[in-house]
Specification:
The protein has about 550 residues and is an alpha/beta fold. It is built from 21 helices and 20 strands. The strands form seven sheets. A five-stranded mixed β-sheet has the order 4-3-5-16-8. Helix 11 packs across helix 12 and helix 20 packs antiparallel against helix 21. The chain is globular. Keywords: Signal, Transport. This is Extracellular solute-binding protein.
């Protein structure tokens, strides 16, 4: 799964839900020491961990301003299920840390950016004490703009870089173009910014690039973000049992599908298949490797990978997959309307859609109920899940920025990283009461102006430790946190978990064609044998040499997996 696949977890959905779902893992395991070498950039290749990383990481000081209703467990987010009392909001930033300077920020934006000087931007800048000027760019083509800007001499004060855009020359550009924040944040220095000190260590670990602490992170839970979402109301009405194995899912799918009645069991279930069969994560290159009996093995070399593809192929062959997915239309279309209409009953998607689908159907379809299936082991046993990385979006500061600019950026981040239940969180995620949102019965609701102004801007600078809170649907918040906790109990960290690794450029595009081939195999356009041949070609074209490179990295630095 690639994060920019249109059929996958939507970036816009992810960011639009940041106000409600921000994810990170508590605790922290330091990572790799600088691994130099390699003809593709010297010390720019490799990663940082161990003793070297410990010296760079900010001290972790858990926040105590707000107490969650559901504590974190097994890598889950914390949860809030109580109503929101505006009169009881806490203050996490008692005084402005900004010194009134101007800071330009380039960031991806999905939708139509609000006008400069809008009420939200003015209120935030006044709260922080910094004049933030946004250079919002189309999130769908952000990689192109990012590459052009980083190749130029005109780099804004702050540039936001999502993990899915860290391809090609971007990682090296990050190391060459952005400032070392260590002097301001490493060790006890971070205590000047308490909300940044409360960001989990693992997320900071991911912010080390080229041996320096360069990024301000948007933390993420290490529990998989792909959930098999299903129409719980229809399951209950029809008497369907929630499957607990791949065979049970196939039985349900055949029973539920009735093409004449325009009902199919599911969409493309490939990502759930990968989880059910215990396939290593494919959302970042380094997570695709794991050490088994002293040898590094890539996800595409495993039997589990082929078995997951074969099971998904059988779903398509059995005719239980909605025609949109069979034709590939689901790659471009929003599945929501047909899911709401009951044309299919299960689909795997980004965690955030559990809440967003609930909210959008609450008025027009009160019987509608979406829920998340627990991921099953393919044979009916416990699943073997693999941890995701604990941060995926970063803000970087121009290496030529003055100390006053850096301090102003950190002042911004200290406000945007405020925890749920604080005045700063509400300001960052909802805007100005009365103008951008109203509150009735403890539920904040954005106004029309709020939906225009308060979008994915300030949340991109830095975020708090993982939090799930839906005052409008507290049962969904509880369900999401408890789902993470159950799945987290079956989640392991692969060999290179949490490491910010820059691969040598000569292997950057080595695996580019595999996602398309996967989709061709499961739709019957290609055969499993074609995939096996592709894996053989991958090995000879550089896969085995890349394995050697990762093995050297591991031998020199060890693993951060716990």
């Amino acid at each position: 799964m690639t994060p920019n696949a249109a059929s996958g977890p939507s970036r816009r959905n992810f960011l639009a839900s940041t106000a409600a779902v921000t994810a990170a893992v508590a605790g922290g395991v330091p990572l790799l020491s600088a691994c130099g070498g390699g003809s593709d950039g010297g010390s720019r290749d490799g990663t940082t961990s161990g003793k070297d990383a410990k010296e760079l990481l900010p001290a972790y000081v858990a926040g105590n301003v707000v107490t969650p209703d559901i504590p974190s467990k097994n890598g889950s987010a914390v949860g809030f299920t109580s109503k929101l009392d505006l009169a009881d909001l806490k203050t996490s930033v008692p005084k402005k840390l900004g010194k009134g300077g101007k800071v330009t920020v380039m960031s991806p934006f999905w939708g139509s950016p609000p006008k400069d000087g809008n009420a939200y931007y003015k209120a935030m800048n006044d709260l922080i004490g910094v004049d933030v000027v946004w250079q919002n760019q189309d999130g769908n083509t952000y990689d192109q703009k990012l590459g052009a800007v980083l190749a130029s001499s005109e780099v804004p004060d702050v540039v936001v870089v999502p993990g899915w855009n860290m391809t090609g020359k971007i990682p090296s550009a990050i190391i060459g173009k952005f400032a070392d924040l260590g002097p301001y944040l490493s060790g006890d220095a971070v205590k000047e910014y308490p909300n940044l000190a409360a960001i989990p260590t693992d997320a900071w670990q991911r912010s080390i690039f080229g041996g320096k602490l360069r990024g301000l992170p948007m933390p993420a839970s290490y529990v998989t973000g792909i959930v098999p979402l299903y129409r719980q109301d229809i399951f209950e009405k029809e008497g369907y049992e929630v499957p607990s194995s791949c065979d049970e899912f196939m039985t349900f799918a055949k029973e539920a599908t009735n093409a004449k009645a325009k009902r199919w069991a599911c969409l493309d279930m490939k990502w759930t298949a990968f989880n059910a069969f215990g396939v290593l994560s494919g959302n970042e290159k380094s997570l695709g490797w794991n050490e088994v009996d002293g040898k590094l093995v890539h996800r595409i070399e495993t039997e589990e990978y082929l078995e997951a593809l074969e099971w998904t192929r059988k779903l398509f062959a059995a005719g239980v997959v909605h025609p949109d997915a069979r034709l590939g239309k689901s790659n471009a279309a929003d599945p929501g309307p047909k899911f709401a209409a009951g044309e299919f009953l299960v689909y795997n998607q980004d965690f955030s859609q559990w809440w967003s689908r609930t909210a959008e159907q609450a008025v027009q379809n009160p019987e509608f109920k979406i829920w998340g299936m627990d991921i099953w082991g393919h044979d009916g046993g416990a699943p073997k899940l693999w941890a995701q990385n604990p941060a995926g979006i970063f803000a970087f500061v121009n290496k030529d920025a003055s100390e006053s600019v850096i301090r102003d950026v950190l002042a911004v981040a200290n406000v945007t990283a405020a925890p749920y239940g604080t005045k700063e969180y509400m300001a960052t995620n909802y805007g100005v009461e009365g103008t951008h949102y109203t509150v009735e019965d403890g539920v904040p609701t954005k106004t029309e102006q709020g939906n225009i102004d308060v979008m994915n801007a300030y949340v991109m600078i830095a975020s708090p430790a993982p939090t799930i809170a839906h005052p409008d649907f507290p049962e969904v918040a509880r369900g999401q946190v408890e789902w993470q906790q159950r799945m987290g109990a079956h989640t392991k960290k692969s060999t290179f978990y949490g490491m910010q690794i820059v691969e040598p450029a000569r292997w950057t595009n080595l695996s580019n064609d595999f996602e398309q081939l996967e989709d061709d195999v499961i739709r019957g356009r290609k055969k499993i044998g074609d995939m096996q041949q592709a894996v053989s070609d991958w090995r000879s074209k550089g896969g085995d040499k890349l394995r050697d490179w990762y093995k050297k990295l591991l031998d020199e630095n060890g693993t951060a997996a716990g």
